[in-house]
Amino acid sequence: MAEQFAALIIVVPLISSLLVPVIGWGQKKLCYPWVVAVLVVPLICSLGILNTVLTTGKFSYRLGGWAPPWGIEYAIDHLNAFVLVIVSFISLMVAIHSKKSVEKELSEKTVPFYTLFLLLVTGLLGIVITGDAFNLFVFLEIASLSCYALIAIGEEGAPIAAFNYIIIGTIGACFYLLGVGYLYIATGSLNMADLANILPDLYHSKVILVAFAFFTVGIAIKGGLFPLHTWLPDAYCTAPSAVSSLIAPLMTKVAAYVMIRLMFTVFQPHFSVEIVPVFAILGWLSVFAIFWGGIKALAQTDIKRMLVYVLVAEVGYIVIGVSVANRVGLTGAILHIMNDAVMMTCLFLVVGAILYKTGTREIHQFRHLNKKMPFTMAAFTITALSMCGIPPACGFFSKWYLIQGTIEAGQWVWAAALLCSSLINAVLFFRVIECAYLKPMEPAYAHNAGETHGEILRDEAPFTMLVPIVIMAAGVIFLGIFSGKIISSVIQFAVPASF
Amino acid sequence: MDVIYSSRPLWAVLVSMIAAFLILATGEKNRNIRESWTIMAALAKFLIVLSMVPVILQGKVIEYTIVTFYPGLLLQFRIDAFGMLFGVIASSLWILTSFYSIGYVRGLNEHAQTRYFFAFAMCLSSTIGIAFSANLLTFLVFYEILTIATYPLVIHSESKEGIMAGRKYLAYTLTAGCVLLFAIAAIYYMTGTLDFKAGGFIAGSGSSAVLIMLFAMLIMGFGVKAGLMPMHEWLPSAMVAPTPVSALLHAVAVVKAGVFGCLRVILYVFGPGLLHDLGIWLIMAYIASFTIIVAGFLALGQDHLKRRLAFSTINNLAMIILGAALLTKSSMTGGIIHMANHAFMKITLFFCAGALHVKVHKDYVSQLDGIGRQMPLTMGAFAIAAIGLSGIPPMSGFISKWFLCLGALEANQIIFLFVLMTSAMLDVAFFFPIIYNSFFKKPLDDVTPHFDEAPMFMVIPLVITALLSIVFGIVPDAFFRFFSLTSLAVQNIMGVG
Q: Hey, where are the domains in chain B?
């Protein structure tokens, strides 16, 4: 059983997603428990895989028993075992959270929603687990297509946003595919490990350079790196809450994973660092991403839109960590993949809960939310502090390693950008905290509360929403305290050995 | 040096953090139970801290490792004489402030009392964490927690003024935190260690330009909380907070954490030897002197009593930094012991300001005519502390001034002697009118002419701190062994440097 985990983690959600319409046909209500139950399987599998990797080192799984490089191989090392746990855990949390918000926002479309939801998770898990460049494209398209559809069922303006995303996203996917095609022409192989062996002899070939350029741009589009992020804010903001809480944290992180995988596994680090000056370009783009995302976020009054722009800045964080191209920076990038995924999930889940309870996402209408939803707001505050880089929450530690990386690389401007970004985050999030905790009550609002003394009654989010939120907030603290343990047992092996 | 491994430092930090959550769980409905958590945590913390004093005085250090992130990068407590001194000051005054707070918030029937006591306990927890931290990273972690934990207290009133003060406070301190993070990361990159070492550890790890830049960044980062000019602006604004907050945090815990950080940087990261070689000690001393004089003059112009006290705080904090920057044995002794002496005297003054606010709702110096007849205990305590801060014997302020002046002479910098003298005269100039007016001027119409004091919860703590500042002036080593701790710390630093 245990050796089949690598296959089960993909097959179970894939088959189950196709079963959702069958189940939903009879009883719509059964979709939710079915999806939650199904998503426990990838979590168990990924934990099993991580355990195997930690005890015996990296291994590969041959799909259908075909030997690589001809057959499809799932190559699992510390890096993707780690990302798999993140993806499966967060998708389970979001699924648990989705119950009420889907009932409210998508009551007519529950069945297609859950079908696509599982397909999206399958795609994300597939991208991470596969060791085959073309197979990665297939999963990328599974994830993207279900993503387009999920976004399109959102609020007003969602179809247009989804349409924009389809066009740009398809270009991104095409670029990636072209890159794979070029590599195949030059090497005759699609297997990543195999490619890594063949490529060093061809590093100065123009075909390889072009392929590398296609890869970089394609992944930058999928990951929403400035200035290719233009599709992202609208798409993620207009999507239904349950969808944005899944894709906002995960899609960008998975793209960052693919970037690390391509640049440091398929291509040797010395190619990506010395032969092509790609990291100088990406690093400076990330600086712009950080400032652009931050400034646009400052201009928003809608909290979800604000978070989406913060996300654009956060992508910059990770790419800076990759771009400094040293061990400690990459450690920071990988750590931040986890930390940011957890923080973003928590924030989006909180926004989902607030939207469900109060029907608003406007920050200035958040008055007295601390009394109405004390636990939700406490979780929000913890995560917000973590975003500002206050220890012992996890955001501080990714910042620490990223800054170490920039110092080691001598990139002072990048370091300054990272520091400024946490100050911008402080402004952004304390604005929300001030609105929720402090502003004096308006008479009209007190009247609505129905109490003569204006006492605000507790009106906490439903249990299915609160549990994932509290778990994620606790995660923000614990991942911070145990970040040393995580780095020494997993991440230091996930960083390519050549550093 | 003998090292003793013990979890007591951790408990000293955790006890108030646990209490903070108990306070939150108890809530507004059971006020007495909630307050009992505060008192119990304060007493427990004080006893834990005090129990470690004898060990430290034997020249040993107590160590406890919380987490190791990486070799050389860890969260660790190590208590030396200097940290112990700060720990004893903060934890002993917390007990008095707790009682005083209860009197204050109940006297004014304040809102959001649970939040208030929660944040207070968190602040103390991080202050002790700062006092006991073994390295710059641990220091930074608790320093940032302290920043955030103080925020709810600054904005406590939730008025527009309070919220603006809170924003200003965050803007100053979070920026400082970023600068610190960068400087500390750079030091770690250069040396591979962050452990404080008496006499410094950074020498020889970089060119002098780099070291000077790092020194500037660290002093900037810690100087913000220490109110070093020109980064002091947040402190007078933060006086909008309730008075117990101003008393403990803006006279003892938060600002002293900044000063403590500056001293750690000067004496334990860079060390006297290196600062002499780089020649920046003199610049540091001039910056501190500038702050001393300017803050003294600004204090003269304040009519709001708490703002006047805030500028006096800035003045005194800079004096502590001056003592360290002069790098001689006596000046360091004077600076370090002044951390303790100033704490007891300044908290007395703030307690008095709070008592006036609660009892007669007076916040301005110009309203205090004749108030001494109604509240003789409060104003008497005020007079003692004010005289002490001006450096007149037998109050404890004299001891610190004496050593500081000696230090200025030892350093062959006669100019700083004049700085200290001028500062003493300014102290007299802005404190004595208050004493004179309150006792000798004809009472204003709204002053009750007979004895009518503030609640006993408030008066008793302020009388105790006033008496203690006399006691420490006559017997500097009484009760808490401040003087022994100070000399031990100075010995450690000079022994190496």
A: 3-496
Tokens found for residue A161: 């946003």
**A430 contacts B167? CB cut-off 8 A:** yes
And the tokens for B479? 């009760």
- Residues A361, A378: Cα–Cα separation, whole Å: 17
Contact A307, A351 (CB under 8 A): yes
Residue B460 tokens read as 């008793």
- Cα of A421 to nearest chain B Cα, Å: 10
Q: Are B141 and A396 an interchain contact pair (Cβ–Cβ within 8 Å)?
A: yes
The C-alpha of A463 sits at a distance from chain B's nearest C-alpha, in angstroms, of 20
Residues of B with CB under 8 A from a CB of A: 67-70, 73-74, 140-141, 144-145, 147-148, 155, 158, 163, 166-167, 170, 174-175, 177-179, 181-182, 185-186, 188-189
Contacts of A484 in chain B (CB under 8 A): 67-70, 73-74
- Nearest CB to A404; choose among B68, B177, B185: B185
Q: Containing domain of residue A381, as a range?
A: 299-499
> What's the total number of domains in chain A?
1
Question: Structure pTM?
Answer: 0.91
- On whether any CB of chain B is under 8 Å from the CB of A288, the answer is no
Q: Indicate whether A40 belongs to any domain.
A: no
Q: What is the pLDDT along chain B (497 residues), one digit of tens a residue?
A: 688 888 888 998 999 899 988 988 888 788 888 888 889 999 999 999 999 988 888 888 888 988 887 777 888 899 988 999 999 999 988 888 888 888 888 888 888 888 888 998 999 999 999 999 999 999 999 999 999 999 998 888 888 888 888 999 999 999 999 999 999 999 998 888 888 888 888 888 888 889 999 999 999 999 998 888 888 888 888 888 888 888 887 778 889 999 999 999 999 999 888 888 888 889 999 999 999 999 999 999 888 888 999 999 999 999 999 999 998 889 999 999 999 999 999 999 999 998 888 888 888 888 888 888 888 899 999 999 999 988 888 888 888 999 999 999 988 888 999 999 999 999 999 899 899 988 888 887 777 778 888 888 888 888 999 999 889 888 888 888 888 888 888 888 887 54
Q: Note whether residue A256 is domain-resident.
A: no
- B141–A389: do the CB atoms touch at under 8 Å? no
Q: State the count of interchain CB pairs (< 8 A) between A and B.
A: 67
Would you say residue A69 lies in a domain?
no
Three-state SS at A131: coil
Q: What is the DSSP string of A257-294?
A: HHHHHIIIIIS-HHIIIIIS-HHHHHHHHHHHHHHHHH
Whether A332 is in a domain gets the answer yes
Q: Which amino acid is at A333?
A: A
